[in-house]
Design goal:
about 425 residues; alpha+beta; five-stranded antiparallel β-sheet
Amino acid sequence: MTVAAVSKIGLAVHKESERAVLAALQSFGLCEIVAPREEDAENRDQRQKTFAYGFDVDASSGDARYALRVLEPYYQDSGDLLSRMLELPERNSVAQLRRTYEDFPLQSLVETLRQKERLLAENRSEYSRSELFQSVLDSLLSFPHELSLITRGTEYVRGVLGTLPGDNVAKAEEGLRSVSSYSEAYAYDYGDSKNEKLFVALFPRENGESATEVLIKLGFVRMDLPQEYVSHAEPEKEKLLRKLEDLRSQEESLLEEFRSLAAEHVEPLRKAVDYLGVLKSRDEVSENAASTERTKYFSLWCPKSELPLLLKTLEKFEKEIDLVADLPTEEGEIPPTILKNPRWAHPYEPLTNLYGAPGYGGIDPTVFFAPFFFLFFGMCLSDGGYGLVFACIFLWIFHTYRVEGEKRKFFSLLFW
């Protein structure tokens, strides 16, 4: 069996009717626009962009996809599990999608989401930072002085906090004493590391540069605490724990707002994305078309058997278009492959496409290997009981769900 014959069509359209004609071709669904030549595609970005729909489709599509990406993780689909697994789309007309988009507050929603995403990011960043300080305060609970000596110092005393290899603690203490006999040093266990210590050094402010130089040579890595830590470690830790609890509460409140926004907006957002995708595909076709001052010219492929239906679809635009069928193909052009088989062989077409569709003008092997696959699968699953169970399951799926396209063909293969 050969693949279906296709015809190359030239279509000249008056610019005033361009959008309506492209919409009709989209609804027809059996045409494929010929891709532009490489040199035309390279010049595409240099063309002046026009907003035929009164707004920037690309920007709006980006905003809608951003909003959907943010909200979908918080959305609980209302359909049953099998419906979600099959990813069965809701059927809507373009007019329904347009009404949904026009009534949808996309810009205000995007602004709200950007603000709440920023607040959530800031909240989580502050929470992570506070958790780090909590581990530091846990190690400093036995520090005898107020933390203000580290965070602010005094007129005469300066303190530094950081990490230091455990093997160098004794050397650091000795080095600080060599700088000033008034220096003090404290080392504490820190985290899970056995070879790293949390090290606090107190020394006269006038010796700060020399003391810091000694510590750095021994592998000291400084760590800054917030300046609001002024009392002892224990009361500061209690305040920090309350702050962490507030941050968790704020995060949960923000997440609840995201869940509420998702429940309200995800479904219309999906329709808005679909509608903008329709407009974007029309724009891409329009931008790639050759044009004059008043007309646009499109090249498209259409199955020859569907030409009468195409002509009937475009009949109402008879005065605004000029259509020429069976144009010669240009050098290097490859017509699309459309499998054409008896109805009983349709379920086996996904297998042909799985191994690679034949080229245009080639032989479609679906009809030839379908009986062999049928027999082979029957030998693998030779129990009639299993076959009856499979048939009942897929019959129920066909009756309950609107399964279409390649999914229906594949399930039909398992059913038969």
